[in-house]
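Box 3.1 A note on notation
Throughout this textbook, protein chains are presented in two layers. The first layer is the amino acid sequence; the second is a token string describing backbone geometry. Keep the layers aligned when reading.
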Amino acid sequence: MRVRRSRGPRQARACIPRPARLLLSWLPGLAAVLGLVLCADGIGHTGAKHRPPVAARPAVVHAAARPHIVPRSVWLDSLARHVQPPPRYDDKVVAVFVHHTDSPNGYDCADVPRIIRYLYAGQTGARQWDDIGYNFLVDRCGTVYEGRSGGVDRPVTGAHTQGFNHRTAGIAAIGTFTAGVAVPKAMTDAIAALAAWKLGLAGIDPRSKAHLVSSNSLSRYAAGTAATLPALAGHKDAYMTSCPGLALIASLPEIRQQAARLQGRIP
């Protein structure tokens, strides 16, 4: 009996017509190209429903430009005998308190460094504070001065508002602004610009409310009491005082609006 031998690869290919063999030879390349196309479209991995989620757009940051701030080295006498302790810091600034210095209004702006030096001497001398209490001071010409040491762009703990020095900044308007006193526009413009920048570092709307906790029962709130205050407040909002004076208090609503405009929150 004659046994039929199985055909080898060459013989098997010989039985396939040549056009069919050419088509089969192209199939691997076509499959590779198709795979690349599918992968490029994201389909070649795990399917459209498993595509990585599209990253959310970052929230709009309402930051304001930093105004020019005269450094404390301009007003602090190099011969000052007070030993300056290291500054203290909070995590951020969520509110700003506006003060007045209760000093004469008719000063020459060239004399402001001397005026601040006197304020510093009184607070670190007779009152025995570790530094000037205000983080910033603004004169009637609209010049902003660095007050308390520690860095103007950092959340330095001040000594300006009983019970609410933490997570706040103090801005002192140089002068006395009781009822009937004209508050210079250059001064209110500078306060608005400074507050817009400082609050903007933490994304705070100057027109909003701040949630703070009193640390001192000498304030309007007993120690440990949670208080809701304006993010841009007058000194009297937290402490039993007439500061910053009725004239400056009356200007606060417009200062808040202007600060919000500088942050780009309103046209």
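The chain is about 30% helix and 10% strand. Residues 1-16, 19-52 have pLDDT under 50 and may be disordered.
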